[in-house]
Amino acid sequence: FPGLTSQLKYVKNLGAQGLVLSPIFKQSDYSASITAVENFTDVDPVFGTLGDFKALIEEVKKQELHVVLVVEPNHSSNKHLWFNSSEHREEPYTDYYIWKTSPATDQDSGARLPPNNWLSVNGGSAWEWSDVRQEFYLHQFDAQEPDLNYHNPAVVQEIKDVLEFWLDKGVSGFQLGGVDYLLEDIDLTNESHGSEPGFTHDQYGFYNHYQTTNQPGLPALLQHWKEVVDNHTGDGLFTAVRTTTSDLIVDKSVPVLELSQNIHLLSRLGRGFEAQQLNDVVQTWINQTTNTTRPVWQV
């Protein structure tokens, strides 16, 4: 933070209006992931202290700039207080994560089998057994990153409180990561097979992930958090990356996300593409959104 603070005049001279900071929250010491957050309202010591961050924001405002924070709210670290309390069935945290038991066992080893066929993006089952709670918990990414349960209104409120904490510190908005994974099918229905060739049943690409991504309640969830930013800032930024459906951007013609960053520009173009093909991809996306939505291409 002090180093960044010392360079803000340079940023201002570039003509930039602000900065987007990759996740700054306190992480678990063991984790190689910057999204295994142990505390959403504290900064990781590698960056400095909350006092250093306050000094950064003060200088940001002097330079008439803005700071936007990257937040990945899909999961926390398994060292987070919420998870520890949930694993021990301590209220009100019992249902802060997605827990499920399973009576099925492996015939050879006798080990308990996961409750359904959901897989982790990182490989293997998306379920991890807890000896403490005697149930499986869901992790769509690393086993040390349990998924939060956004079917629980208390969890939605917790993240709202987190956003308010940082807005009160002077940030101007948030860029959310992994929003497509925030909600899962509440009945934990098995995933069905996808149409992509070359995958086996134990690989993530084998399934279509209709049960674990882009669930119907997602726009309403995002709108709830967007209102927090709007109420605090008036003109703050609430955006996301990895958006995969237009419904996440527009709900009843009201933009849920500003400057939503589409990552699929290059993936939909083959080698040696020509201008017309590029135009077709861009126009297809624009036609799915309203005139109030500005497309942003993340390359």
TrEMBL record:
Pfam families: Alpha-amylase
Coiled coil: none
EC number, UniProt record: 3.2.1.20
Enzyme class at the top of the EC tree: hydrolase
Domain Glycosyl hydrolase family 13 catalytic: 1-294
InterPro entries from the UniProt entry: GH (IPR017853), GH13_cat_dom (IPR006047), O16G_dom_2 (IPR045857)
Reaction(s) the record says it catalyses: Hydrolysis of terminal, non-reducing (1->4)-linked alpha-D-glucose residues with release of alpha-D-glucose
Source organism, top-level taxon: Eukaryota
Protein name, UniProt field: alpha-glucosidase
Organism field: Timema podura (Walking stick)
